[in-house]
């Protein structure tokens, strides 16, 4: 696990503990835990900017949590049509990939590109489960020279 992910989880734990301390009317302790949560949150964000890397496959369950970008909002913002050829970089587990592939079917294609083969495999399992056949996975690192 990346240090920024560990800091984020610790921040969440401190925030939950602060809430519990508030319920127990331990205001000073709750305030201290709140400050710890904020500090860890800031550290997590800073480390994420300084040490960029792919989101770990081991934490893929987080990608299943509710997300502010709904399929409807995505469709409005991207304006896809059947027959389009689309490239998605860093598709994760395919939350939006399968939906996009359905929108551009039957003649459109979706290329998903990711540095982690496990993520590409998850996209293809999801696509197979939805009987989607117009997704092409490509494993690679952005900036990598290809022959």
Description of the structure:
- This protein is mainly alpha-helical and 147 residues long.
- It folds into 2 domains: 3-53; 67-139, Vaccinia Virus protein VP39 (Rossmann fold, 3-Layer(aba) Sandwich).
- Helices cover 50% and strands 11% of the residues.
- It has 5 helices and 3 strands.
- It has a 3-stranded parallel sheet with strand order 1-2-3, with helices on one face.
- Helix 1 packs antiparallel against helix 2 (27-50).
- The chain is elongated, with a radius of gyration of 20 Å.
- The mean pLDDT is 86.
Kindly report the spatial arrangement of strands forming the biggest sheet. 1-2-3
The percentage helix is: 40-55%
Shape: elongated
Biggest sheet, in brief?
3 strands, parallel
Percentage of residues in strands: 5-15%
Low-confidence stretches: none
Concise account of the structure shown:
It contains 5 helices and 3 strands, in the order αααβαβαβ. It has 147 residues and is mainly α. The protein has 2 domains: 51 residues; 73 residues, Vaccinia Virus protein VP39 (Rossmann fold), CATH 3.40.50.
Strand-helix topology:
Elements: H1 3-23, H2 27-50, H3 71-78, E1 85-89, H4 97-104, E2 109-114, H5 117-129, E3 135-139
Parallel strand pairs: 1-2, 2-3
Helix pairs in contact: 1-2
Considering the chains and any ligands shown, give keywords for the structure:
single chain; 147 residues; mainly alpha; Rossmann fold; three-stranded parallel sheet; 5 helices; 3 strands; 11% strand; elongated
